[in-house]
């Protein structure tokens, strides 16, 4: 039985001590790096341990097999998304629409390295549709919540529609920056400008004025 084979249905060990929790974080970070670089299938348990500077026995102590590592990574990535979008909603109350547009782009830049293996995990797993739907659902709900904080008169359905457009714009920009999509040297900046103009156009009518009435209200 090789290092990637399933070893029963044993669950991952949840360490109680700080040193154990730190070791798990190091192992998961190493696994995330490798899976982002090489893909889920090509990554082995031995490579994860080596990248983390740990003994293979230490890895198996916390994770019985590679599938358990993947499960932990998915949960970790979803938790990161939830935390970041919750923080975004709190910031949105102090932001103008164009400033919020820039913060969303900044969020894209900071989030991607932290959840870099999510795409590889989704492609390799049998439940990839469920994982993708969960990740997209968290992203759309999180962006929509921030939009409604910035523009309180915005109804939930429209906020989710705008959030879907914003999410796709962010993905295109990421692809352009990574040279995975056709672009030019000034293309990303033009997309950022379009992103700001779009959000300002859609949110400004629903912003609260000094008397508490939204611009969209009669």
From TrEMBL:
GO terms of molecular function: DNA-binding transcription factor activity; transcription cis-regulatory region binding
Gene3D superfamilies in the cross-refs: Tetracycline Repressor, domain 2
Entry annotated with the keyword DNA-binding: yes
Pfam families (alphabetical): TetR_N
Alphabetical UniProt keywords: DNA-binding
Protein name: TetR family transcriptional regulator
Residue ranges that the Swiss-Prot or TrEMBL entry lists as coiled coil: none
Calcium as UniProt keyword: no
DNA-binding residue intervals: 44-63
Biased composition (Polar residues): 1-15
Record region (Disordered): 1-22
Domain HTH tetR-type, first and last residues per copy: 21-81
């Amino acid at each position: 039985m090789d290092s990637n084979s399933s070893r029963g249905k044993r669950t991952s060990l949840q360490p109680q001590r700080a040193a154990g929790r730190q070791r798990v974080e190091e192992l998961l970070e190493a696994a995330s790096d490798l899976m982002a670089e090489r893909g889920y299938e090509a990554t082995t348990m031995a490579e994860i341990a080596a990248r983390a500077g740990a003994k293979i026995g230490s890895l198996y102590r916390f994770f019985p097999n590679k599938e358990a590592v993947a499960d932990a990574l998915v949960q970790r990535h979803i938790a990161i998304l939830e935390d970041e979008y919750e923080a975004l909603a709190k910031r949105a109350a102090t932001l103008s629409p164009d400033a919020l547009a820039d913060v969303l782009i900044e969020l894209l830049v900071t989030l991607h390295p932290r959840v870099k293996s999510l795409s590889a995990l989704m492609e390799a797993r049998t439940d990839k549709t469920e994982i993708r739907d969960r990740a997209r659902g968290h992203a759309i709900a999180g962006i929509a919540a921030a939009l409604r904080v910035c523009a309180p008169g915005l109804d939930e359905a429209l906020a989710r529609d705008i959030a879907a457009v914003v999410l796709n714009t962010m993905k295109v920009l990421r692809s352009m920056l990574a040279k995975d999509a056709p672009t030019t040297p000034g293309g990303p900046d033009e997309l950022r400008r379009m992103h700001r103009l779009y959000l300002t156009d859609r949110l400004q009518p629903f912003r609260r004025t000094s008397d508490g009435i939204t611009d969209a209200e009669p």
